Amino acid sequence: NAGVTQTPKFQVLKTGQSMTLQCAQDMNHNSMYWYRQDPGMGLRLIYYSASEGTTDKGEVPNGYNVSRLNKREFSLRLESAAPSQTSVYFCASNPGEPGEQYFGPGTRLTVT
Amino acid sequence: GIQVEQSPPDLILQEGANSTLRCNFSDSVNNLQWFHQNPWGQLINLFYIPSGTKQNGRLSATTVATERYSLLYISSSQTTDSGVYFCAVGNSNSGYALNFGKGTSLLVTP
User: Fold this and answer.
1) For residue A98, what are the contacts with CB-CB under 8 A and spacing of at least 6?
2) B84: helix, coil or strand?
3) Closest-CA residue to A34 (of A95, A101, A99, A112)
């Protein structure tokens, strides 16, 4: 039981490049989330998926797209990376009802 | 979203001391969690505690949902307790997504 996994762990991009961050969970959870954490701050919600086939914007969605590929997988895409997107990205899941949310190990992204 | 305020922002303790961290939030919640972020950036679940009191070893937490606050108690602190402690809350309005406070940065010295 791996919980929530994320790939890659580290990534360096040049401004304007694109990439997709991958996330998968093996807990049969309905809801999945993408957050970003900037230095000295708490996590902020980018997008979430309350169930397979649905996605909704969070607090900071600009510059990102998401895909809920199936119940297990939720990907985050940066179409044209900007230095302001330098951050640590966390994926999370929970059952989709009041309950404990579990986080992946994070992806550290640097955009130069 | 729900506003979350944590205090104190920074805390330095000598090993063996006790401490209380506070979390205030601005709306009714169904989810409340405390996390420890270690120096490697990993988020460790400490408590899922939307109401009531829980204990796990030297750590305990209490949430008074009607008054919109939660407390995390650390007793007999150890150097391995160092890191940032986050409180995060959520409700059904945004699919139980969590709203995080800015954290309490704890340093435990030998």
Assistant:
1) B30, B31, B50, B92, B96
2) strand
3) A101
- Side-chain-side CA neighbours of B54 within 13 Å: the count stands at 12
pLDDT at site A83: 97
Rounded CA-CA distance B96/A34 in Å is: 13
Query: From B46, which residue of chain A is nearest by alpha-carbon distance?
Result: A100
Q: Per residue, what are the HEC states of B38-64?
A: CCCCCEEEEEECCCEEEEECCEEEEEE
B interface with A, Cβ–Cβ below 8 Å: 1, 4, 30-31, 33, 35, 41-43, 45, 48, 50, 86, 88, 90, 92, 94-103
Select the residue from A4, A43, A54, A60 to test the B interface by mutation, using most B Cβ atoms within 10 A.
A43
Q: Find where tokens 């994070």 sit.
A: A106
How does pLDDT run across B14-73, given as a tens digit for each residue? 999 999 999 999 999 999 999 999 988 999 999 999 999 999 999 999 999 999 999 999
pLDDT at A99 over 90: no
pLDDT of the residue at A96: 79
Task: Tell me the chain B residues in contact with residue A6 when contact means C-beta distances shorter than 8 Å.
Answer: none
Identify the closest residue of chain B to A102 by CA–CA distance: B45
Q: pLDDT tens digits, residue range A1-46? A: 679 999 999 999 999 999 999 999 999 999 999 999 998 888 999 9
